[in-house]
Amino acid sequence: xxxxEYQSKELLASFGVPVPGGDVADNSRDAEKIAELYxxxxxxxxxxxxxxxxxxxxxxxxxxxxxxxxxxxELIGKRLVSPQNPAGIxxxxxxxxxxxxxxxxxxxxxxxxxAQQKEVIMISAKGGxxxxxxxxxxxxxxxxxxxxxxxxxxxxxxxxxxxRAEIDRRAARQMVLLIQRIYHAYLxxxxxxxxxxxxxxxxxxxxxxxxxxxxxxxxxxxxxxxxAQASDExxxxxxxxxxxxxxxxYVKLDGDVGVIGNGAGxxxxxxxxxxxxxxxxxxxxxxxxxxxxxxxxxxxxxxLMDTNVKSLLINIFGGITRGDxxxxxxxxxxxELDVKLPxxxxxxxxxxxxxxxxxxxxxxxxxxxxxxxxxxxxxxxx
Amino acid sequence: xxxxKNTRLIVQGITGREGGFHARQMIEYGTRVVAGVxxxxxxxxxxxxxxxxSVARAVQExxxxxxxxxxxxxxxxxxxxxxxxxxxPFVCAITEGIPQRDMVRVVNRLAENGTCRLLGxxxxxxxxxxxxxxGIMPARVFKRGPVGLVSRSGxxxxxxxxxxxxxxxxxxxCVGVGGDPLLGMRFVDVLPMFEEDPETExxxxxxxxxxxxEEEASVYIRxxxxxxxxxxxxxxxxxxxxxxxxxxxxxxxxxxPESKVKALRAAGAAVAETTADIPxxxxxxxxxx
Lengths: 382, 289
Prior knowledge:
The structure holds two protein chains of two kinds. Chain A is α+β, with helices and mostly antiparallel strands. Chain A has three domains: 21-98, ATP-grasp fold, A domain (Dna Ligase, domain 1), CATH 3.30.1490.20; 102-227, ATP-grasp fold, B domain (D-amino Acid Aminotransferase, Chain A, domain 1), CATH 3.30.470.20; 237-381, 3-Layer(aba) Sandwich (Rossmann fold), CATH 3.40.50. Chain A contains 14 helices and 18 strands. Chain A has helices at 5-13, 28-37, 54-58, 65-75, 131-137, 155-164, 169-188, 228-233, 238-246, 264-276, 293-304, 323-337, 352-360, 370-381, and strands spanning 22-25, 42-46, 59-62, 79-82, 85-90, 94-98, 102-113, 118-124, 142-146, 191-202, 207-209, 213-216, 249-252, 257-261, 283-286, 311-318, 343-349, 365-366. In chain A, strands 7, 8, 9, 10, 11 and 12 form a six-stranded antiparallel beta sheet that branches. In chain A, strands 1-6-2-3 form a four-stranded antiparallel beta sheet. In chain A, helix 9 (238-246) packs antiparallel against helix 11 (293-304). Chain A is elongated, with a radius of gyration of 25 Å. The mean pLDDT of chain A is 91. By secondary structure, chain B is of the alpha/beta class. Chain B folds into two domains: 8-119, Rossmann fold, CATH 3.40.50; 138-287, Rossmann fold (3-Layer(aba) Sandwich). Chain B is built from nine helices and 14 strands. Chain B has helices spanning 17-29, 55-62, 73-85, 100-113, 154-166, 187-196, 213-221, 257-266, 277-287, and strands at residues 8-12, 32-37, 45-46, 49-52, 66-69, 90-93, 117-119, 125-128, 132-135, 144-151, 171-176, 202-208, 228-233, 270-271. The chains are: A alpha+beta, B alpha/beta. The interface between A and B is large, with 53 and 59 residues.
């Protein structure tokens, strides 16, 4: 689960990480009031979970509280679109934050290095820009400090890493403390990513986290009651939010072929085959192992919430999942939801014969292989 | 290799719904399930299998040499460590959704001690067709033969195994390493076993987007004497989206399919464009040997 910037900063501040003053607002009056606390010298930032927010016009600097309020009024309810997120996201909240006089910008992050199977602290003196670009152009500018799971992070290791990263000497001592606190926050909240970009040295010599991204481990939310509220706000797409509520693995994509399958690998294969047949999938959906008829019906309902969907491809390889259960779920869904879209179904594995009998009664197009199913979908859409 | 007629298996979580169902399926397949473990239920029986309170006790009483874990995610990391501490050399974790922080501790401790091989978590297990099954695979699609298979995905494995079996190409051992970002055994750990295994004549590797396990595997494939046919799923997935498996995400410039296909081809593996090509490529590889 990705946290908004303001949520990320609240979390980090509770672990002692210095962040600029400010607060979140969902209307122009509140935004203006917050701005007045800082003499109008604020930055207003749209709270949307997408890359390229600044370039999309979601961030602006002000000297006057009234203007900050007016900008907020324009921004709330507006859809921001960026190259990273062409569909765009509607702004519901803004963060009104105190402006800081920046002298130097750094980069700090705590995350997992999959290949090394260790947690790693990444530090760079080249902050404020896209870190992937830094990694591609000047990989030596990023220093990696691996965490020993037994002993944790030692100050002397961080001091050494900060020096190697050529962080300004005036910031060094504060950086050591900041990194300890970031790592503590990362561990204690079961985060999979804490990223501060930029982390700045101000003109008056303070080190502050000016932006912050925190991603929490969905699998560990059961031991963090404190994030229950945050999860309501973090959805990047309304159908994905509904899917999360129902406990269904669903990812919205930008095509028009609805896809339902079982098992992540098989669903990915199905998307690939749809693309090979010249069409684009509207979604990724994994019904999960051992799905019963009712759950399958819920999945069909979910896929059809996307109004772009023009046809539906169902691809099930039954192991624990029984083909007849899936078939019954599909048939029930078609009747109850009064579905008019063309549907291609391919059900293999456990109880596949019975599944085929059940589906034969409904208005479906059968297929024997995933390649054949994708070809039939492509024909329908042509 | 990994699992066979000598495997004496403990099922951790045997009294749960999933654990119980699959324990019966494994027994039916011929796997020697010698014990179950559920803390608090020691002294009882599951069908004819004795249940113990701890893995240590189960090992002591039954001489078990492997364990398969169906324990719910909040307790699964602990179950893995318990099996390691009891001295088991092989543990297979089926459980999906174990917190990342727990798995960081588990994989680092196992690597440091070096006494226990972990398969998974979030994996379908391992099967030596017609001899032994440790996991949840649908048994009827598998057939004994010369093809070794290692995969990051469960259902996709069943799909491809069925195509192999239908084409008359049986399997020596099939290993599902799992779909999580942090895993016990990875491709680089399983491939050398196939290279050594006298029954395996060719290997199918089923990868997917995310991470760099396929690239790392390529370095080893270069040195292998046996032919490898690879397939990568998720080739049309957009970056930044987690495609079901926690590990299947293209992020920060790592994990894209082109890099994997390129590395595998450069290492001499045949990369199949669709699953239907896999049996064809395997047959060609076997004929050219």
